[in-house]
Amino acid sequence: MWTLLLQNGEGVLFDATLVRYFVDRFVADAIEQSRGDARPADRASLLARVANMTEARTGVASGTLLQVLDAEVDTGLFEVAAARSTKVENVVSRALFLVRIATLAQSATLTDGAGPDAKRWLAAWLSSAGLYDPQVHDGPSDIAVDYEDALEEFHAADWSRAPASLWGSSARNTALLSRPEGFMGWALPL
What is the DSSP-derived secondary structure letter of residue 111? Predict the structure, then answer.
């Protein structure tokens, strides 16, 4: 899950993966609905149609969009979130979706004129929460690197010694990954 929240260029990987999930669903549904037609729909033509429509709306070249839409992407988290189950993994996946939607709404508000006071307040809040240190970080968005490092260390942990391997020298990083509010540091235009 944390991998989806990390920075990806100017955005967050979650956003591109969610778009890809919706496009994959559209393509699968369109192919299924056209099975009895004389000329059933195929994946390539449907992706080209989506890319052309998106290019007309956004100005992004359809070739670039096709590369993104046709790349290998794991959208499994969204499948889990969409399932009707109330298992922990389903509920947590839905919560991640809501966290991102909330940050998008906050981002729009901060960009549309909530102004520097709100941005300073959020930066101070991240600092008081122990996630952002103005003495260490150039700006709140720099805490993304802390989360990336924590995630790398988490993946490299000696799982044969778990949970002890997560709490030795890794305690700070393990604890950091339990703090999703830090995501605001790089998800919002602070």
Answer: I
User: Per-residue pLDDT for 169 more than 70?
Assistant: no
Contacts of 100 by beta carbon, 8 Å cutoff, 6+ apart = 5, 12, 14, 15, 18, 187
103 close to 188: Cβ distance less than 8 angstroms = yes
Mean pLDDT for the stretch of residues 176-186: 85
Beta-ladder partners of 11: 8
| Confidence class for position 5, pLDDT limits 50, 70, 90 | confident
- Helix (H) / strand (E) containing 9: none
At 117, phi and psi to the nearest 5? Answer: -65, -45
Query: Is the CB of residue 159 less than 8 Å from the CB of residue 88?
Result: no
Average pLDDT over residues 154-175: 79
- Tokens 């059933």 belong to 40
* Helix extents (H) in 129-183: 143-155, 164-167, 171-176
Mean pLDDT of the chain: 86
- Domain positions in the chain are 1-77, 115-190
Half-sphere exposure of 156 (CA within 13 A, CB side): 9
Distance, first Cα to last Cα, the chain? 23
CA 41 to CA 43: how far, in whole Å? 7
